[in-house]
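worker-3 :: picked Bifunctional protein FolD
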Amino acid sequence: MTAELMIGTELAAEMVANAATRAGRLRAETGVQPCLATVLVGDDPASATYVRMKQNRCRKAGIESRSVVLPAATTTAELVAELAKLSNDPSVHGILLQHPVPGQIDERAAFEAIDPGKDVDGVTMHAFAAMAFGEPGFRSCTPGGILRLLQAYDVPLSGAHAVVIGRSPILGKPAGMLLLASDATVTYTHSRTVGLPDIVRTADIVVAAVGKPNFVRGEWLKPGAVVVDAGYNEGNVGDVHFAEATAVARLVTPVPGGVGPMTIALLLEQTVDAAQAQSETAVQPVAGLA
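worker-3 :: tokens ->
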């Protein structure tokens, strides 16, 4: 068996083009140009590269990109103050805090300083609760992108057994919640799970989000499984041993070119959604008093 690749680039390009059309329409009708503020703490080269990539995609989608770069020594209080300022700025519609942040910062406190209405990366507890309860709200971008990719490739989710490897609050945990909301039966696992290979062999769908290169081996997989590699490690290596997986699975996402483009595309789509929602709830002048 040679697996078919689940490529995210083409679908992501369609999503970005649609976001650009909607952003242009919003600007023409209301004068509002969607704006995404990216906040980077420190000078980590990989994080800086990701931020530049997102800014470039913003330009293609007709979204204004505002960059905030803070020193590596920034404290939690200083970062929270900056995020609160952006949250209160009506010209900013979405906020992205590039993570991970330096070790001295309480990352959860920083995330919670983002207005839920501007949390277009889906990192707040409000966003997680919305995903868990099936309520409207922004999705964590990588899990949300994974669901869109599975749907595009007509992967049956209802009744399927999905094994999520990883428990990050912005990747593994919300991925499981979204799969559960799609009527999949979900098993959460992680790098310390006892008997992990045997559990993975029962999965119709495997989501690898553990942050360890080549962690998931081909012999762990059930023949014909759908494998989503949400990992990215040095050297363009995912969390799944790609060559081994493609010899066993039915569908596999490559790294790069699989999940990554979907993450950015959903970020831009949700930024336009946020701008639309905020333009609709903006205070309008009372007739006769303008």
